[in-house]
């Protein structure tokens, strides 16, 4: 979840503007939004236009507008990757009266603002898990092959939350194979240090076809001793090597 802006008091009122970047984020949003909250977002609504149609009626047009609803119902459609929030409009608008019912559809990449009268510890914990995948990740997986490395954090309710990809080497770069491989391992090492928090993660798996995993594991431990990287040194027994057929998911 991308947090654009937060303005609230713990155990008090406030708002958070956020953007769901994947379906897991919508699930977190579903668990964050409660009856009695208000949600503001850009939406669409059909309104009567001034253009008359044959028979004496008026045509309708789809208008883009910003509404804020006082939440009464929340529904998450996993297949469509959309969160539907129904409630009464509380934002003055020329097309929709105050108190009129409307359903906001929050889909991926659509910013929305959630306001609560009371941000309790449960809401704050859910927000932290949504915005910081590492906060609830039990397992780290480094999936790799030469030229490609990906890091996934897998938690109680999260899957493949973080990826770091390094493109395969081509052309003239092959001539400097050792140099290119060392640089590749360094990039994966930096991603490992950044994303794997052993105070949360119980186990880290390094997986690859062939001997790439063994080479990287050796590089990881040597660099951990040289720099030193205490978190890796103290938790090296929790790093496991696994063979896979591919470095792709």
From TrEMBL:
Gene3D superfamilies: eRF1 domain 2 (3.30.420.60), Pelota, domain A (2.30.30.870). The keyword Cytoplasm applies. One of its GO terms (molecular function) is metal ion binding. The keyword Methyltransferase does not apply. InterPro entries: eFR1_2_sf (IPR042226), eRF1_2 (IPR005141), eRF1_Pelota-like_N (IPR005140), Pelota/DOM34_N (IPR038069), Pelota_N (IPR058547), TF_pelota (IPR004405). Residues 1-132 form the eRF1/Pelota-like N-terminal domain. This is (rape) hypothetical protein. It comes from Brassica napus (Rape). The lineage of its organism: Eukaryota, Viridiplantae, Streptophyta, Embryophyta, Tracheophyta.
